[in-house]
Every structure is written in C-alpha cells, then in structure tokens.
Specification:
Helices cover 40% and strands 15% of the residues. NADP nicotinamide-adenine-dinucleotide phosphate (NAP) binds next to helix 1 and strand 5.
Length: 326
C-alpha cells in the first residue's frame, strides 16, 4: 500500500493556505498547518476543514519552533506561504516585512537543512519582484526590479531558496505567482475591496467606493487554480522555478467596470479616487508568461477573469445578505 504523504503548510489561515489544504486533502495527503499564536483565533477560511487538518503552533520569527515542528511531524513537503503579504503595509512596516517575508524564508530553509534536507520545499515568490518591469511579458529569466519593501523582501526569499538548492542540493522550488484572487481574499486587497464595495452599494449599505490608482494593470487569476501549480512543482523529478500567470492583464478600472456591471450599476457613479490609497512607488503593469509551467508541469489556468469577478461579487452579496438577514 502506498505511504500517505504528509505536508506542512505555513500560512494555512491565509487565502492560499486554505485552498492548498483543501487540494492536498483531496489528493490524500495528511496536512499539518502552522498557525501563529494570537489572542483571538482566526480560522474563518479553514473552519470547514478544521477537523481534517492538524494545526500546530509556530512562527516564522522563531526558528526553534520550526525545528520542533519539523522534528515532530517529519513532512515530505513544506509549503512556505506565510508572509506579511500586503504591499501597502510594507512601507509603514518595512523592518517587520523584511523579518517575516525575507528572513522567515531563511529560518524555515535552515530548519529543514538541520532536520532533514530531503524534505521538499516550496517558496511563495511573487510577480511583485518584477516591479518596474524591464520586459513584457515577464518570465523566469526576466530581471527583478522590486518597487516596495515587500517586493524587495520577496526577492531575498527567492534567491535564498535558489541558494539553498544550489548549496545543499535541496529540492527547493520558487513559484513566481502573479496576482490570484478569490472570495477568500483579504478585504484590503483591491479586488476584494471592489467586490465587497459593490455588494455594499447594491444593498444600500454604502454610497461610494474610495480607491487609489485605477490605471494599474494586473494579471489576475483564481487562487484555487494556482495552488495546484505549487503541488505540481514539488512533484517533478527536478526542482526549478516557475512563473504562474494567465497571460492576460486588466486595469483596476476594468475590474471596477465589470464588478459594478454585474449588479447593473455604472462604476463611474460610485468610484472616488482617494490619495490615501496611492503608493509611494507603483507597479504599473504585470503580465506573465507561464509557458514553462504549461509545457513542463502541464499547468494552465481554468477560471477566466470575467468568471473571477462574477464569483467574487456574488459571494460578497451572499455573505452580506446573510449578515443582514435579508
Ligand atoms: P495571506 O492571505 O495574507 O496569508 C498570509 C498567511 O501568513 C496567514 O496565514 C498569516 O497568518 C501567515 N503569517 C503571517 N506572518 C506570519 C508569521 N510570522 N509566522 C507564521 N505565519 C504568519 O496571503 P495569501 O494571499 O494567501 O498569499 C500566500 C503567500 O503567497 C504569501 O507569501 C504571499 O506573499 C504570496 N503571494 C501571494 C500572491 C497573491 O496574489 N495572493 C501572489 C504572489 C505571492 P494570520 O492568519 O495569523 O495572519
Ligand atoms: O490588490 P493589491 O493590493 O495587490 P498587489 O499590490 O498587486 O499585491 C498582491 O499581489 C502580489 C503579486 O503580484 C502579491 F505578491 C502580494 O502579496 C499581493 O497579494 O493592489 C493591486 C493594484 C495596485 O497597483 C494598487 O495600487 O491595485 C491598486 N489599487 C488601486 N486602489 C489599490 C487600491 N490597491 C489596494 N489594495 N487598495 C486600493 O484602494
């Protein structure tokens, strides 16, 4: 009988962590989720699978906690999804962002090296590393030019992953994922802010939606499609780095247009531009070339941009109606 595989996910309470846990459970894995201690529990995204996963306490700030978890559970695969992941916050908390999003990667890689260097490792790298892009579209060989402390931290996380692979012959992969969204996205990210804002306006709970730069363009996919690529990377014969993207880009303005349109409204009547949401340095355009992932992994996105916008607006309408007992 085949041995059941065990995976450790850091960041299991986040958007991607919840989808990846579901995916791995479906694949027959035993899933260990690392959670950090807080005064209130934050299991909203995983409450439907909480009885199927093992939750353990640890923190990317604390290498000892990581070593203990690895020694106790001996996972076959580690998915490092934990991070301070909100770009805007990285300007107000640059050192904290560097500690978690950059040095946190070294701590977990080093814990793996100490406990068992045969454990396979996935690092959640980001298209934010391309920043002020030097090539369109962006692929694995495109040079990085990060535009935020978050982007800089992710560049460090990417290269330390490559370095541990080359220094210690570890099976370490960096997935350079372009923006991926869902109804589980945090409310501060622009897509969820829009879908939630549209639902509130449609239900008469708000009159306007205040946003920053409407011209920024992103290559937006569905998070549920992207977590499959993480698993695919760790289940190849050789470790490598991959861009994961749809190959299509849309502006924040276009997202607004479609989202308001979905409920029969015109975004121009409700969206107000607000300086508070502009960034000190912007990433104007991201569009990825995922040819390597398609040809090597056999990965391709399954959800269109239009389907993504509609599902997010529908979900927020449903959630708000439930909360309002409508
Ligand atoms: P998310 O929803 O913000 O989730 C982040 C997770 O990290 C949460 O579970 C959070 O725990 C955990 N975390 C934060 N600091 C921690 C620490 N010190 N120790 C342990 N856990 C900690 O992010 P996401 O959208 O799922 O993204 C997952 C990963 O992919 C992140 O590394 C992100 O930077 C990267 N990424 C995301 C995208 C995207 O478009 N979503 C694209 C490229 C790369 P709490 O719940 O306790 O806060
Ligand atoms: O939704 P965002 O905050 O995502 P951003 O900065 O692209 O970062 C996300 O994707 C990265 C992958 O490229 C991840 F690594 C990262 O962890 C995160 O998941 O902003 C998208 C765009 C930006 O250009 C921003 O300036 O939307 C613009 N925007 C316009 N108005 C706004 C707003 N963003 C936010 N959050 N809030 C606004 O009101």
């Amino acid at each position: 009988m085949a041995k059941i595989k065990r995976a450790l996910i850091t960041g299991i309470t986040g958007q991607d962590g919840s989808y990846l846990a579901e995916f791995l459970l479906d694949m027959g894995y035993e899933v260990i989720g690392m959670i950090r201690r807080s005064s209130t529990v934050n299991f909203e995204r995983i409450k439907h699978i909480q009885d199927k996963v093992t939750l353990v306490s640890g923190d990317l700030f604390d290498e000892v906690s990581l070593i203990h978890i690895l020694r106790e559970y001996r996972p076959n695969e580690v998915y490092n999804l934990a991070a301070q992941s909100f770009v805007q916050t990285s300007w107000s908390q640059p050192v904290f962002t560097g500690e978690v999003t950059a040095l946190g990667v070294t701590r977990i890689l080093d814990a793996i090296r100490i406990v068992d260097p045969d454990i396979r490792f996935y690092q959640a790298s980001s298209s934010e590393m391309f920043g002020k892009v030097v090539e369109v579209p962006q692929k694995e060989t495109t040079p990085f030019y990060p535009r935020s402390p978050y982007g800089v931290a992710k560049v460090y996380g990417h290269w330390i992953t490559v370095n541990y692979r080359e220094s210690y012959d570890m099976f370490a992969c960096s997935g350079i994922l372009f923006n991926h969204e869902s109804e589980r996205r945090g409310l501060e990210f622009v897509t969820r802010k829009i879908s939630h804002g549209v639902a509130r306006i449609k239900l008469g709970l708000d009159k306007e939606l205040r946003l920053g730069n409407l011209e920024a363009q992103r290559d937006w996919g569905f998070a549920g499609d992207y977590v499959k690529a993480m698993w695919m990377m760790l289940n190849q014969d050789q470790p490598s780095d991959y861009v994961i993207a749809t190959g299509k880009t849309h502006s924040v303005r276009r997202f607004c247009e479609l989202a308001f349109d979905h409920v029969g409204l015109d975004y121009r009547d409700y969206v107000v531009q607000d300086e508070r949401f502009m960034r000190p340095a912007e990433v104007d355009l991201l569009i990825g070339d995922a040819t390597k992932a398609r040809t090597t992994l056999g990965w391709h996105p399954e959800t269109s941009f239009e389907e993504l916008v509609a599902r997010m607006v529908e979900s927020d309408l449903r959630l708000l109606k439930q909360a309002q007992h409508l």
